[in-house]
Every structure is written in C-alpha cells, then in structure tokens.
From TrEMBL:
Annotated signal peptide: none
Transmembrane segments: none
One Pfam entry name: DUF1801
Protein's organism: Salegentibacter chungangensis
Name used for this protein in its record: YdeI family protein
Taxonomic superkingdom: Bacteria
InterPro entries associated with the record: YdeI_bac (IPR016786), YdhG-like (IPR014922)
Length: 197
C-alpha cells in the first residue's frame, strides 16, 4: 500500500518514530514544502527536491538530493552508494546517535541556498545503454515487448537494462525479467509507482 502522508510513513516505522519526528519538526521550520515521493517524505523548494528523511532497518537518515554540492557542512555527510551515487548524500543515525537539529539545520540551510541559486548536479544522460543478453533474447522473441520497449524514454530503457544487469545470479535475472515484462508492455517505467505515491 502506498504511503499517503508523512504521518502514515512515521507510523509504519515504529522503531524510528522519535527520530523521524525530530527530523520532520526541523524540516517543517524551513521554507521547504513537504510531500511524499518514492514512498517517503521529501522536502522541496519550488518543486525541486532538496532533502528527504527515511527509515531503514538499522538506521534512519536525512538525505540531500544535491548533497555533493555542500561545501560548508560536510562533516556528517556520506555518499549513499559509493561509485553509483553522484549527487545524493545522507547523514545516518543509529539508535546510539543523538539527533541535534541545531547542527543539522546548517546543512539544510546550505542545501536550500544552493537550490535558490540553481545549483544542481545533472545526471549523466550520455551513459551507454547496455541491454543484457537475457533481456535481448526476450525482446527478440516477443515483438510486442520490443515495440513497447522502443517507445520508452532512454532513461526508462536504461532503468530496466540496469535492473537486469545488476542481478548477479541467472535465476535472479530471470525472475526480474518476468517482473518487468508486464510493466514494459503497459509503457511504465521501473520506478514509476514510487514517484507519486
């Protein structure tokens, strides 16, 4: 079930409710607009993503969509996925950590200022589309699938190709292929269901 609002998101993460409430309270004291994107709380300025809060199994986090641009406030920042994530940075909290809004707000304010100045890291759209052999075989034997795939944007095609390429085991690749075929035939992107929930 998609999350309807931030209160529901917090309720769904009982282990991190206190921490999420502290982070949310801090974010609500900024000029950012609160919304739900990709199933979690995101804070925007003029429709542009600035920050988000999230709960995971072993930690919760404050995210910055263009966190790599932060210059003054970097001590607590971590790359979300080294080697994969270009712009996104996070500050992670475990149960042992004390969340200190008086320090975190400096990161948020710098991120807001960067957004006001139009600073952002553009995604690399020149990355070559590499369709894995298993996926190519499926496209070859299914003309309707090939036609639907060709109609997708390059970004959506890349999402699907990467999704199959990232699987290590052949069984996982086949399982993922079965999952994405109906989505491609419907003209949907891999992550579409998360974008406006």
């Amino acid at each position: 079930m998609p999350v309807k609002n931030v209160e529901e998101y917090i309720d769904r993460h009982p282990n991190w409710q206190e921490e999420l409430k502290i982070l949310r309270e801090m974010m609500l004291d900024t000029p950012l607009e609160e919304t739900i994107k990709w199933g979690g709380p995101v804070y925007c300025l003029n429709g542009k993503n600035v920050a988000g809060i999230a709960a995971f199994k072993n930690h919760c986090a404050l995210w910055f969509f263009n966190g790599a641009l932060l210059k003054q406030n970097t001590a607590l920042l971590q790359n979300a996925q080294e080697g994969k994530t270009k712009a996104l940075r996070q500050i992670k909290f475990t149960k042992e950590d004390k969340i200190r809004p008086e320090i975190l707000i400096n990161y948020v304010n710098e991120a807001i200022q960067n957004q006001r100045e139009g600073k952002e890291i553009k995604p690399n759209t020149n990355k070559k589309l590499i369709i894995p052999p298993e996926f190519l075989a499926e496209l070859d034997k299914n003309p309707a699938l090939l036609k639907a795939f060709d109609k997708l944007t390059t970004g959506k095609q890349r999402e699907y190709a990467d999704y199959i390429n990232e699987a290590k085991k052949e069984a996982t690749k086949q399982k993922r292929l079965k999952k994405i075929i109906p989505m491609i035939l419907e003209g949907k992107g891999l992550y579409e269901k998360y974008k406006n929930c």
